[in-house]
Specification:
Order of helices and strands: HEEEEEHEEEEEHH
Number of helices: 4
Shape: globular
Strand order of the largest sheet: 8-1-2-10-9
CATH architecture of the largest domain: Beta Barrel
CATH topology of the largest domain: OB fold (Dihydrolipoamide Acetyltransferase, E2P)
Length: about 190
């Protein structure tokens, strides 16, 4: 009977160790040139890079409290250290499917400015990436994007050939569509 409890404690300890390591690496990476350091996230099927200079903290996933008469992509509010934080399903906002939430999913705070901060749901935090370790995606010149959102920055590919899209947090937080959280009662 003690074995399941010990397994649970061991998993909890490993999770705490991982979170401590990620927090340490975030602090270390912030000492590097900000333009070259990114927090890598998987949001649904897409992979995003958030510039560390524009990224707040990474929080454990929790169910947001719904807010009536808001856009479908506005998941609701969570209490983060005594402050209310709006939670965005960024995949839905971009016109995709809802972001899958699984064990290990996180809320990633955008902006270090408290008055502008909100969080996006990340299916998975994939650690840190640095620009020198990334290259242009294969076929970049051949791919033409019909419509590129203002918050979509440069695209990269990692050594495994996985495409990464830089998220321009400032442009997102200033986008009129993003600022229009409410919807009419009609």
């Amino acid at each position: 009977m003690n074995a399941p409890r010990q397994d649970l404690r061991a998993r909890h300890t490993r999770l705490q160790d991982y979170q401590a390591m990620l927090a340490r690496r975030l602090r270390e990476a912030r000492s590097l040139p900000a333009a070259d350091s990114y927090l890598a996230l998987q949001i649904g099927a897409r992979h995003w890079l958030l510039p560390l200079a524009e990224t707040g903290e990474v929080l454990d996933m929790r169910q947001p409290s719904r807010v009536p008469l808001t856009q479908p992509w506005y998941s609701g509010l969570v209490n983060a250290r005594g402050s209310l934080l709006g939670v965005i399903d960024f995949s839905l906002f971009c016109g995709g499917a809802p972001t899958p939430v699984q064990p290990g999913s996180k809320l990633v705070v955008l902006s270090r400015q408290v008055e502008r901060a909100c969080a996006i749901v990340a299916t998975r935090v994939a650690g840190l990436r640095h620009a020198p370790d990334l290259g242009l995606p294969h076929g970049e010149a051949a791919q033409g994007h019909d419509e590129v959102a203002a918050w979509e920055g440069q695209r990269f590919a990692d050594r495994d050939g996985r495409d990464w899209q830089v998220l321009d947090v400032r442009a997102l937080l200033e986008a009129p569509a993003f600022l229009q959280v409410g919807r009419s009662a009609a």
